[in-house]
């Protein structure tokens, strides 16, 4: 087998680097993280002419090799380390046709590292519209390289890139510029101290940390003995280097690159005027947010429900098809239920990333940052944090994933940490049921108390997010770019291929990345909920049946059966009277008997299930934490629900349904059952104003969602942040709920 | 008082003067904020910050705090009239 060529794609942001990558690799790409850090690593395989294969690495976008961020230092560290397994045999610098000048700055730096480098000039389709003409052979000669003129939009020139890569051995690896002219004495001394090293490489190593964080310089032995200049002197030299490079580039472009200015301008200026307008700009952004919100909240509910139902019937089908037993239960209630819990998020994630990639592709996202930067700055957030924070109102999982667009690590981390405070849709069932139980029905200024409470809860969520962002901004000591320079790219029509790839890739990364953790926790919760060691658990069926035999069903179930039988007999009699059926009285009695047996059996199995849950591991855990949740006004049953709803908040309702043996999570049924529950003193309802408010506040603040933890783990690449989030949010929720209950009780 | 990029009005242009080398972020130079290049103020964000400029064909947004460090020679368009 022939050797694979290592290719690195390098370029400024917004040059269509990703489009070129997609064209070269198709779907044969893999996205991961660089070890230990959160920078995305995209790689793929490309088939070249003459049976050669290339391993393509899409490096993060950078304007130069002077690092100012983690993303950029990934690029530099790879290019400086010839022992890295990904070290490129050939570097492909990608430029767009309009900003050739500043892309060449990066090009000359890479060339000076003596790496064979070829130049791709993308977006060739814009040349005529922008009045640009180029002398490619002259450029090739002056830059000492090969050039491919490409339009990923039109699909032209990609074959040329492949040919040039395959032919990389004929590329020159001579440097463009002699950097030592910026400080001849200094470079002379450098040369003497390290006679075996390349001078420009040395220079890059020395200046690596001038703008960014310190890096290890152990690749240079005896470095400490060398007299290092002060940071400020080095920075001056870096500036000088930039000027020298631009002189070199300007001299070339004067001859080889012409722009007819009269052809340019127009469209962009007009759009900018509207989109960044102080009124219309915000209105348009608000409208777009509203659409995104509508999509993840409403439109995605159709595919979500479909997946939910499909999985439910699949579980039912498998349960009936397999012999009853532990294994079947593990498959259906543990594994399949877990998978279903992962898949239901897919529509929301897909929708959100559809919109986000459209916003990014068109260049609108930069305008959003421009509009929002001043507003978000005091909170340590980025202008781009707005999209995650708003979409967090639907679900925190896609929202946390959406923070990938925030370049600044500190701003991104803060956004990730505070997003789970916003009121996601999984809190809604919990809120609705408790509000209907404890908040009186009156009205205030025409608004019902219940609606006001719900709105207040949303506001509290946002408030908590903003306040904790401010606090985190103060306490997090992360060195990151202290300045803000952002390119405002030209507006472009989005490329369908890029949008589709983004959506696919994000969905995949959720299903495989966070899915594993969700599945594992869901299996653990299933195990703990359906197993127990006590004899009570093992003999649950017998114990409950004996109790029913001696005392009958629980009062609630008795009444419930009676009511539904009455309703049924009324309905039967009605239809007989209306001559829908002609059946005798005996037959009516029979069918009532059958119905009664059916209901009784159902009630019995519900009571068994409730009893089992009570005596399972989770049940004991619920009882064990009762002393802890007692001061919040909860009993052990709510304790159990708190534990199980760690899987997802909405499980709270289902768990209470099981414990109360209601056997239905229809809201009305369970609400009436919950309303009947009295607290241990027997004096008042368990769900009273004090305990209700305390529960609402607990759910508003607590990190009750394993999927969010899983995705935070994935996005921050460590367990440190999700665990801190869990501990901090739970503690905060506990304290607030405690205060609320103690004051109100 | 020295005129800086922060003092430009919308649509106004200026030429960047020589500046002390180490005060500006290197990124600005890489994007073309070099002495002798023309700067045009394109837009100002609704809360007066950040500002959106065109340097030498590159469109970038910068904060006021940075803009105030880039000194300019104004190009006076009014004289033509």
Automatic annotation (TrEMBL), chain A:
The keyword Ion transport applies. Residues 4-171 form the FeoB-type G domain. It is found in: Cell inner membrane; Cell membrane. NCBIfam families: feoB. GO terms for molecular function: ferrous iron transmembrane transporter activity; GTP binding; metal ion binding. It is a multi-pass membrane protein. This is Ferrous iron transport protein B. InterPro entries: Fe2_transport_prot-B (IPR003373), Fe2_transport_prot_B_C (IPR011640), FeoB_GTPase (IPR050860), G_FEOB_dom (IPR030389), Gate_dom (IPR011642), GTP-bd (IPR006073), P-loop_NTPase (IPR027417). Belongs to the TRAFAC class TrmE-Era-EngA-EngB-Septin-like GTPase superfamily. FeoB GTPase (TC 9.A.8) family. Keywords: Cell membrane, GTP-binding, Ion transport, Iron, Iron transport, Magnesium, Membrane, Metal-binding, Nucleotide-binding, Transmembrane, Transmembrane helix, Transport. GO terms for cellular component: plasma membrane. Gene3D superfamilies: P-loop containing nucleotide triphosphate hydrolases. Its main location: membrane. Pfam families: FeoB_C (PF07664), FeoB_N (PF02421), Gate (PF07670).
From TrEMBL, chain B:
This is Ferrous iron transport protein A. One of its GO terms (molecular function) is transition metal ion binding. The keyword Iron applies. Keywords: Iron. InterPro entries: Fe-transptr_FeoA-like (IPR007167), FeoA (IPR052713), FeoA_core_dom (IPR038157), Transcriptional_repressor_C (IPR008988). Residues 3-74 form the Ferrous iron transporter FeoA-like domain. Pfam families: FeoA. The keyword Nuclease does not apply.
């Amino acid at each position: 087998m022939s050797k694979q060529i290592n290719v690195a794609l390098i370029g400024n942001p917004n040059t269509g680097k990703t489009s070129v990558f997609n064209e070269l690799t198709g779907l044969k790409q893999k996205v991961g993280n660089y070890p230990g850090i959160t920078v995305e690593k995209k790689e793929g395989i490309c088939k070249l002419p003459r049976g050669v294969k290339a391993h393509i690495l899409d490096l993060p976008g950078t304007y130069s090799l002077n690092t100012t961020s983690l993303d950029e230092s990934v690029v530099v560290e790879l290019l400086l380390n010839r022992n890295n397994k990904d070290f490129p045999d050939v570097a492909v610098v990608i430029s767009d046709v309009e900003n050739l000048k500043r892309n060449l700055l990066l090009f000359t730096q890479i060339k000076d590292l003596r790496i064979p480098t070829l130049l791709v000039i993308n977006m060739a389709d814009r040349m005529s519209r922008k009045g640009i003409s180029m002398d490619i052979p002259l450029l090739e000669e002056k830059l000492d390289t090969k050039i491919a003129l490409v339009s990923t939009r039109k699909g032209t020139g990609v074959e040329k890139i492949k040919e040039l890569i395959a032919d990389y051995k004929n590329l020159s690896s001579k440097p463009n510029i002699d950097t030592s002219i910026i400080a001849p004495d200094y470079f002379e001394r450098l040369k003497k101290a390290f006679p075996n090293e390349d001078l420009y490489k040395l220079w890059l190593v020395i200046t690596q940390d001038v703008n960014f964080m310190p890096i290890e310089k152990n690749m240079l032995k005896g470095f400490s003995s060398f007299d290092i200049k002060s940071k400020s002197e080095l920075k001056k030299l870096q500036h000088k280097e930039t000027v020298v490079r631009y002189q070199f580039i300007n001299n070339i472009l004067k001859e080889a690159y012409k722009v007819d200015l009269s052809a340019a301008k127009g469209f962009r200026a007009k759009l900018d005027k509207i989109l960044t307008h102080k009124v219309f700009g915000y209105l348009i952004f608000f409208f777009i947010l509203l659409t995104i919100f509508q999509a993840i909240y409403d439109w995605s509910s159709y595919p979500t429900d479909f997946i939910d139902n499909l999985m439910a019937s699949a579980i039912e089908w498998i349960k009936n098809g397999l012999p009853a037993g532990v294994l079947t239960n593990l498959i259906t209630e543990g594994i399949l239920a877990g998978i279903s819990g992962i898949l239901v998020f897919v529509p929301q994630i897909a929708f959100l990333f559809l919109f986000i990639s459209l916003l990014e592709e068109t260049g609108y996202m930069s305008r959003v940052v421009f509009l929002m930067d001043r507003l978000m700055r005091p909170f340590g957030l980025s202008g781009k944090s707005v999209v995650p924070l708003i979409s967090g109102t639907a679900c925190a999982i896609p929202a946390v994933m959406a923070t990938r667009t925030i370049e600044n690590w500190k701003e991104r981390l803060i956004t990730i940490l505070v997003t789970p405070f916003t009121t996601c849709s999984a809190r809604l069932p919990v809120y609705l049921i408790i509000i209907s139980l404890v908040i009186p029905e009156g009205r205030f200024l025409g608004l019902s108390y219940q609606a006001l409470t719900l709105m207040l809860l949303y506001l509290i969520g946002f408030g908590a997010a903003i306040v904790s962002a401010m606090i985190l901004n103060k306490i997090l000591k992360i060195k990151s770019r202290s300045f803000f320079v952002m390119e405002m790219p030209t507006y472009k029509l989005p490329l369908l291929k890029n949008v589709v790839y983004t959506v696919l890739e994000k969905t995949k990364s959720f299903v495989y990345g966070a899915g594993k953790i969700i599945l594992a926790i869901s299996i653990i919760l299933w195990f703990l909920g359906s197993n127990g060691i006590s004899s009570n658990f093992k003999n649950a069926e017998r114990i409950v049946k004996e109790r029913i035999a001696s005392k009958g069903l629980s009062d609630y179930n008795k009444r419930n059966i009676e009511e539904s039988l009455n309703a049924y007999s009324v309905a039967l009699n009605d239809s007989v009277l209306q001559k829908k059926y002609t059946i005798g009285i005996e037959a009516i009695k029979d069918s009532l008997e059958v119905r009664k047996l059916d209901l009784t059996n159902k009630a019995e199995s519900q009571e068994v299930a409730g009893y089992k849950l009570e005596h399972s591991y989770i049940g004991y855990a619920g009882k064990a934490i009762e002393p802890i949740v007692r001061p919040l006004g909860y009993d052990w049953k709510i304790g159990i629900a708190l534990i199980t709803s760690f899987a997802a908040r909405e499980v709270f309702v289902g768990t209470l349904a099981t414990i109360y043996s209601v056997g239905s999570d229809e809201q009305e049924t369970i609400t009436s059952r919950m309303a009947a529950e009295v607290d241990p003193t027997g004096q008042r309802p368990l769900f009273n104003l004090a305990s209700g408010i305390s529960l609402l506040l607990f759910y508003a603040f607590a990190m009750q969602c394993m999927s969010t933890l899983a995705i935070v783990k994935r996005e921050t690449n460590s367990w440190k942040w999700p665990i801190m989030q869990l501990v901090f949010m739970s503690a905060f929720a506990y304290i607030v709920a405690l205060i609320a209950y103690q004051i109100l009780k | 008082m020295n005129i800086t990029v922060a003092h430009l009005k919308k649509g106004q242009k200026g030429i960047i003067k020589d500046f002390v080398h180490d005060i500006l972020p290197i990124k600005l130079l890489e994007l073309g904020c070099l002495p002798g290049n023309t700067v045009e103020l394109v837009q100002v964000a609704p809360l007066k910050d950040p500002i959106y400029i065109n340097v030498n064909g590159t469109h970038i947004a910068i904060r006021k705090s940075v803009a105030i460090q880039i000194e300019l020679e104004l190009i006076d368009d009014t004289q033509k009239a």
